[in-house]
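FORM 7B: Structural annotation worksheet

SECTION A. Query
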Amino acid sequence: MTNYLDFEKPLAEIEGKAAELRALAKANEEMDVEAEAVALDKKADALLIQLYKDLTPWRKCQVARHADRPHCKDYIETLFTEYTPLAGDRNFADDHAVMGGLARFNDKPVMVIGHEKGNDTKSRIERNFGMARPEGYRKAIRLMEMADKFGLPVITLVDTPGAYPGKGAEERGQSEAIARSTQKCLQLTVPLISVIIGEGGSGGAIAFATADRVAMLQHSVYSVISPEGCASILWKDAEKMREAAEALRLTSSELHELGVCDRIIDEPVGGAHRHKAESIANVGKAIESLLAELEGKSPDGLKQSRRRKYLELGQKGLAA
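SECTION B. Predicted structure
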């Protein structure tokens, strides 16, 4: 069953009518409605192209959050082989919002780490909707240190509304854990590739995405705060999230222009949630290409160029 977003309601009506016609024909073999159903299919395809031709920033936020988008687990199961999950931060607990471990990508050993939101009620609660606690970031630090020790490239898959803001997380040093994870990203002497596959929210995303190369799926978003949070602070009204989304410049095209995003990964028409296999394959090709760009660079060279990249961010805007 397709889950439709608010702006896709006209599409839902057309595709629903086509499905009804085919269901009637299946129940009554004497009915021949295929021609009408095909005509509705063509109308739906044209409308889908029109809807996704020029999405507003707020609509891109909705697409990035779509429940049916492929999640970290889907990418790991499809793109990586011999995945061996590693659990726990060796201090407090294992955070199920962060998954990671040793794996092979194109038969080469790597460390893969990502946020996992879950895909049904039970798994979403278990994964805390992709909102990591301090132990999740400390687990990521542990895995990055292991990768650095053994010379393994690190690949991170970012999909989080932000770090979990609960009382327990704050008591256990949430901000310190995020800062340490970001610091560890900058200290690595191995290639670090980050892909924003859905939401890249706040410091919870930056802690994984302070990378040599940051790629974003076409309809993903990456921002210091959610549009609703921004609207609540600036306008004291969360309903002004559309205006906030415009002001935050959180889309892949805007961030590519600003130099925050290094590569935009195309999504099929209708978004990654409609064509999961194609979207995952596109991400795999991008990771392969980005790793090739970094191949042969010295450990110190990687560390220095990554540090320089983030120190220089924003200078273009200041010069203007």
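SECTION C. Observations
The two ends are 49 Å apart (CA to CA). Strands lie at 81-85, 98-105, 108-115, 154-160, 192-201, 213-217, 221-223, 263-265.

SECTION D. Sign-off
Analyst initials: ____
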